[in-house]
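Lab channel / #folding
Pinned by the channel admin:
"Please post every new chain as: sequence first, then the structure tokens as a reply. Keep commentary short and put observations after the output so the thread stays searchable."

First post following the new format, from NK:
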Amino acid sequence: MTASHGERIRIRFQTRYGVLPAGTKGLFSAQLICAVGSGMTTPMLVIYLHTIRGLPLALSASISMVAALVSLAGNPAGGWLADRSGARATSVLGLLIAASGTGALAPVTTSGWAIGAVALLGLGLSIAYPALNALLGHLAPADSLNKSFALQYMLRNIGYGVGGLAAAVIAGRASPGIFQLLYLIDALSFIAAAGLVLRVPTRGRAAAAPEQAKSQGPLESFTVVMRDSRFRRLWLINLAISIIAFSQLHTGFVAYATTYTHVTPRIIGIAYLANTLTVILAQMPILTVVNKRARPTVLTALCTCMTIPIALVYTSAHTPRIIGILLLITAPAILAIGETLYAASIPAMVNEFAPSHLRGQYNGALILAFTVGNLLGPAISGFLLSSHLPLPWILIMLTISLIAIGAAALTSSRAKLGAHSWK
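Reply from TO:
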């Protein structure tokens, strides 16, 4: 790469994102490293427990859900700890717990051991993510929150993609030693990320928040968060799009495409690739569009982009084969547009109006909506599609989509979500 070409990339980046606030470079680097490690191991967990460690397939799949169950408590706990003890300290704590969990998976031999390791991993991540979001909310100026959260989401996706590719290459030979190496590398990635977060400055709002939060207990502060009508509507949107979109991408989409559209795993892989590439390539242009549009328009577009993919997936089984395949590849790409709209909107909106001393709780509750959705979505699709009831499945998904669109309309028309513009 020539110097002039590198300079053009730097100028283009700063045109879209501006100069990054102090401390956020280290925070973004930490999350990129974490994402690479997680991308290497998360998709492999069921394969590792079943194929390498010899646990029954159903049990292996159930163990993989332990992390989400633990997160039901971990998300609000992480938010409360971030407000009480500081977002940086809580982030480091969560990352180190996650490191111990994924590291313990390397030598796992029994189901009990696996459950404990996955529970530790889930607890660590569920504590770390609200704290990391709160830390970013503290560090980024109010007028660049949407840019900062959009960049964070894009870097996480790049990390997951790179990690997934690395795992596909490294794990080509399914041996215990190779998989152990992957989980040890993942553990080291969390430790390295914790070291980077420790170097993030905690000045101004980030330092003042814990002192103001110490007078409130966890239940009291969480109740205050959920009484905020602005937040409740965004929470409902978060829950809805998690059920119909994010969780379906790896459950209902695969089950329906293979069972009813009868496509091969190769087509599924191409569809996932379309999703990842679209997120990476579209985030910067989408951010430019978001900065020029009113929030009602963005929220409506977000919910629409989360609704269209599930309709395309259902339609794919009722069209000629080539059209069905194209629909299956297009659906995750459209979902990716929705992901980029989400990354540049809702997290920034929440961090904009959240009081500084409750920023962790707001982020913990917001992520809790995803956790609940990631439990409900697969449960709904798994039961209905395994029972050969695709029509009730799509009707339920579309009904939830309409609820999300309605909540977006109410959010836009009844509430002023923040004092700053998006530009």
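NK: The chain has two domains: 20-215, 216-418.
TO: also worth noting, Residues 20-215 form a domain with the Growth Hormone; Chain: A; fold (CATH 1.20.1250.20).
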